[in-house]
Design a protein that fits this description.
Elements: H1 6-14, H2 21-37, H3 39-50, H4 54-80, E1 83-85, E2 95-102, E3 105-109, H5 117-128, E4 132-136, H6 142-155, E5 161-163, H7 168-175, E6 181-185, H8 188-200, E7 205-208, E8 214-217, H9 223-235, E9 247-251, H10 252-270, H11 286-297, E10 302-305, E11 309-310, E12 315-316, E13 319-322, E14 339-345, H12 348-356, E15 363-367, H13 371-380, E16 385-388, E17 409-410, H14 416-421, E18 423-430
The structure holds nicotinamide-adenine-dinucleotide.
Residues 109-113, 118, 136, 138-139, 167-168, 171-172, 185-187, 190, 193, 208-210, 242, 334, 336, 362, 404, 409 line the site of nicotinamide-adenine-dinucleotide (NAD).
InterPro entries: Ald_DH/histidinol_DH, Ald_DH_C, Ald_DH_CS_CYS, Ald_DH_CS_GLU, Ald_DH_N, Aldehyde_DH_dom, Aldehyde_DH_NAD(P)
Protein name: Aldehyde dehydrogenase
Keywords: Oxidoreductase
Length: 452
């Protein structure tokens, strides 16, 4: 593998041209054109690689990436404007401001589940912040990776963006190089590898990781509506979504009705034979399929709906499980597939204790109309993001920073958060030499006597 030409990428930044808004707008415009002009091919590649429905791919990959770029373009000037700071009397006369400036060369490493969106959105943020980029698509989406490798040079010059394809070996080699920021989306296991490699060069990292995002439901809500929102968030992309509800914690009084509504929502969305539904995705590859079948078979409990699977088609039916064994692997690791365990809890207190005893999740969803329940979740838990009455959609709002906390990651992005995350916040002070008001600080310290 010949590595990327980091010297050329870094030189673009040190030349000063990327500090200006014109350069940033031009690169964002080029990235936008790439996505729009090749949307059909990109969607086709993602659909073939991941096995997701084309319309879903358009919505969650190309459409949201273009939206993100438009949001960045609309606000770039406002977000990057120097922020004046008022100084204490002792330092006056002087002026000061905080200036966001490019960090340099940003490495973006993407996973396979939203292989285009999770590449394009961080890259857009990096370019908006005036950086140059190296893009590393996932090796588990080979068609998309090849397409990105072919298209990027047609829109972005090689001193602005370079694509490196490959898997563990190539990424390991890449991580030995010195970047100015690494933006990684993927598993906690690889996130740790990335952070260790970054430490060698004291390179800052953004880690967008995963985890088990819980959903709490009690009997104060419209359980039909709650079930539809949970089923949609869970089974989109066949459950292979970092913020998908991993499992449900339901109070005893709501359990039976919620289970019935979950079954009804699965039938409503995917029909009586979900295998024939054009709107249900497949599992990305045989390895993931085997892992999910093993989790399902080791879960214990009762299959309320679904459970069917077919390795040849990488099919796994939208599955709801009740009364699973709390010690089973399915309740220990991130499920990342279309299997939804529903666990019964006595009340919200028990749910909170369970959530608080585990790693901080990437998302937490609460379906309750009771103010004290909402308040208790707000105060006593933490998670990357939180939604009341909905699942997943908070990720789609470019106005909300998106990121994890603790084991679900560090740093955040989308919209303004991307520009802030991928810029250096430089403090700048400008003081006239005369009058020399700093004289009071110089030795001999007679001037300080009696003042401190
Ligand atoms: P992964 O960690 O296996 O791979 C991600 C990237 O890391 C790939 O580009 C891969 O080439 C590279 N990589 C893999 N092994 C490596 C190694 N040993 N050294 C260096 N690089 C290596 O993740 P995945 O399976 O592609 O994605 C699934 C995970 O990503 C889930 O945990 C999911 O929750 C998480 N995820 C998080 C978000 C988020 O925004 N927070 C979004 C999507 C997925």
């Amino acid at each position: 593998m010949s590595g990327p030409d980091l010297a050329a990428l870094r030189h673009t930044v040190t030349s000063g041209s990327t500090a200006g808004l014109d350069w940033r707008r031009a690169q964002l415009g080029a990235l936008r054109r790439l996505l729009v002009e090749h949307e059909a091919e990109l969607v086709e590649a993602v659909a073939a690689d991941v096995g997701k429905p084309r319309l879903e791919a358009r919505l969650t990959e190309t459409y949201v990436s273009v939206e993100e770029i438009d949001h960045l373009l609309a606000h770039l000037e406002e977000w990057t404007a120097p922020r004046p700071v008022s100084l204490p009397l002792t330092l006056r006369p002087a002026r000061a401001h905080v200036q966001l400036q490019p960090k340099g060369v940003v490495l973006v490493v993407a996973p396979w589940n939203y292989p285009l969106n999770l590449l394009a959105s961080p890259v857009a943020g990096a370019l908006a912040a005036g950086n140059t980029v190296v893009l590393k698509p996932s090796e588990h989406t080979p068609r998309l990776a090849a397409l990105v490798e072919r298209l990027v040079p047609l829109y972005l010059p090689s001193d602005v963006a370079q694509v490196v394809t490959g898997g563990v070996e190539e990424t390991t080699a890449l991580l030995e190089q010195r970047f100015d920021h690494i933006f990684f989306t993927g598993s906690g296991r690889v996130g740790r590898i990335v952070m260790r490699a970054a430490a060698e060069h004291l390179t800052p990292v953004t880690l967008e990781l995963g985890g088990k995002s819980p959903t709490f439901v009690d009997d104060t809500v419209d359980l039909g509506a709650a079930a539809r929102r949970i089923v949609w968030g869970k089974f989109t992309n066949a459950g292979q979504t970092c913020v998908a509800p991993d499992h449900v914690l339901v109070t005893r009084t709501a359990r039976d009705r919620l289970l019935a509504e979950l079954v009804a929502a699965v039938h409503e969305f995917f029909g009586d034979d979900p295998r024939r539904s054009p709107d249900l995705g497949r599992i990305v590859d045989a390895r993931q399929h085997a892992r999910l079948v093993e989790l399902l078979e080791g879960a214990g409990g009762t299959v309320v709906v679904g459970g069917q699977h077919d390795a040849d088609e990488r099919y796994l039916a939208p599955t709801v499980l009740a009364d699973v064994d709390p010690d089973a692997p399915i309740m220990q690791e991130e499920i990342f597939g279309p299997v939804l365990p529903v666990i019964t809890v006595a009340d919200h207190q028990q749910a909170i204790e369970q959530i608080a005893s585990r790693d901080h999740p990437l998302a937490l969803y609460v379906f309750s109309e009771r103010e004290e329940v909402r308040e208790a979740f707000t105060r006593r838990t933490t998670s990357g993001g939180m939604a009341f009455g909905a699942t997943v959609v908070h990720v789609g709002a470019a106005q909300l920073p998106f990121g994890g906390v603790g084991a679900s990651g560090m740093g955040s992005y989308h919209g303004r958060a991307s520009v802030e995350e991928l810029s250096h916040h430089r403090s700048v002070l400008d003081k006239p030499l005369g009058p020399d008001t700093l004289r009071v600080l110089y030795p001999p310290f007679d001037g300080l006597k009696g003042r401190l």
